[in-house]
Design brief:
Nucleotidyltransferase, domain 5; Arc Repressor Mutant, subunit A; binds zinc ion; 5-stranded mixed beta sheet; disordered C terminus; alpha+beta
């Protein structure tokens, strides 16, 4: 039996409402949140406590603004039952995604419904204080449009395209030129709510796909990302599996070609060094031009390998004869990407495999090639019944996934309000 105990972990960032809730009342709130809308008399059956206890708790929760009476249930004998739901205005959850020179921001109501989302460009000055100020202003703008202020925030998820440690410190982020920036503390101090910071867009993509994208309705979703970097993330029952140091699923730096191309990490022949977007573009630029058809040859002449996304897509769309160096390169890349997916599938045994990142976007030949290769690389592939699907969530919508994730975490175990004791 799960018990709830009041605690004040992270008391520095305690939410304002936290002290007002009794643990027993909290369990009622959780049941209402899970069921959506529920007649008050049903709560007694659901929770296994007497009606008068429940009625007292409901009264307190309504008075504190957590629960709302949203209508009456007609039918049956006796008086109509009062319908209860989580008060949408009890607070809100935010997701912020700082990636690719942009800040994407999403806001959800306490009941998990989307209120708003916006995107802004990061200014020229990328000093931590400046970017944090910009995140703060963007968030306050979204909050104010929803008629709220930062005091209403119950939790915030911030995602950064870089390496982040378990304390929410951004160890390194190339696009922002950051090193050792305590992003969680900086945001928590300004906004006064629980802040969760995770690195790399893979986690946020994975959470978003599992909550609202190609993996919705599935218990275990493996998101496999191939673009500038390569990596995978498992989302199990709505929770991304981060690992002890938040590096679970970082397959990009597994060596697949010993002694192969040099990787940014210092090693040679990493998966990322041979099959990421920039790696494929660099290999394409080294091929003899006369053996490449147009428009690939034209693209390479005009822009070199500076735009890997379009270049790689054009290469996969080009028809080539077997034995042609381009065909060989693409077959090798497909095999390597399939190896990454095969390792991830073998490790996590998922229901759904979501192929995301720009290499897989609008690139049916690569997706088909990887799927075909998986059949021969993964033991019992057919018996596993993994459904392989294309990612659906757009970059600007990823922050919604982050907000939904923090919303779900709050309702399952709201830090600062109560902790679950097994
Ligand atoms: Zn590497």
């Amino acid at each position: 039996m799960v018990q709830y105990a009041v605690s004040r972990i992270d008391s520095k960032y305690d939410t304002k409402k936290s002290t007002a809730i009794r643990p027993a009342d909290w369990s009622i709130l959780q049941v209402v949140q899970r069921l959506g809308t529920v007649p008050q008399h049903r709560l007694a059956e659901q929770i296994g406590r007497g009606r008068s206890t429940i009625n007292g708790a409901v009264q307190r929760l309504v008075a504190a603004g957590w629960l709302a009476r949203v209508g009456q249930e007609a039918g049956g004998r006796g008086r109509p039952a009062i319908l209860l739901a989580v008060n949408r205005d009890a607070g809100c959850f935010a997701g912020v995604d700082i990636a690719g020179g942009e800040i994407h921001c999403a806001l959800l109501a306490a009941d998990g419904k989307l209120l708003d989302h916006v995107s802004t460009r990061v200014g020229r000055d990328r000093l931590p204080a400046v970017v944090v100020e910009q995140v703060d202003l963007t968030l306050r703008g979204v909050l104010s449009r929803a008629g709220a202020g930062p005091e209403r925030l119950l939790g915030l998820w911030a995602g950064v395209a870089g390496a982040v440690d378990e304390n929410g410190m951004v160890v390194s982020c190339a696009s922002l030129r950051w090193r050792n920036v305590p992003l969680r503390d900086l945001l928590a101090e300004r906004l006064g709510c629980d802040v969760l910071v995770q690195g790399g867009s893979t986690t946020m993509n994975a959470a978003a796909e599992a909550l609202m994208g190609a993996g919705r309705d599935a218990e275990s979703v493996l998101y496999y990302h191939a673009g500038r970097g390569i990596g995978a993330r498992l989302v199990l029952a709505g929770r991304p599996l981060a690992g002890t140091t938040q590096r679970a699923g970082e397959f990009g730096h597994v060596v697949v070609e010993p002694g192969g191309a040099r990787c940014a990490c210092g090693n040679r022949g990493c998966l990322e060094a041979v099959a990421s977007g920039p790696a494929i573009a660099a290999a394409l630029a080294r091929l003899p031009r006369r053996q490449l058809g147009d428009p690939l040859r034209q693209m390479l002449t005009q822009t070199g390998n500076r735009n890997p996304e379009t270049l790689v897509r054009a290469a996969f769309k080009q028809r080539t004869a077997r034995g042609n160096p381009l065909a060989e390169l693409l077959a090798r890349v497909t095999r390597h990407l399939a190896m990454g997916a095969a390792m991830a599938v073998a490790a996590y045994d998922p229901q759904v495999l979501v192929l995301g990142g720009y290499l897989f976007a609008d690139n049916p030949p690569l997706r088909r090639g990887v799927q075909r290769a998986l059949r021969s690389m993964v033991l019992d592939w057919d018996a596993r019944r993994v459904s392989v699907v294309q990612a659906e969530v757009l970059t600007q919508d990823r922050a919604v996934g982050g907000a939904a994730e923090v919303c779900q975490r709050f309702w399952s175990n709201p830090r600062g309000v109560v902790t679950v004791q097994a």
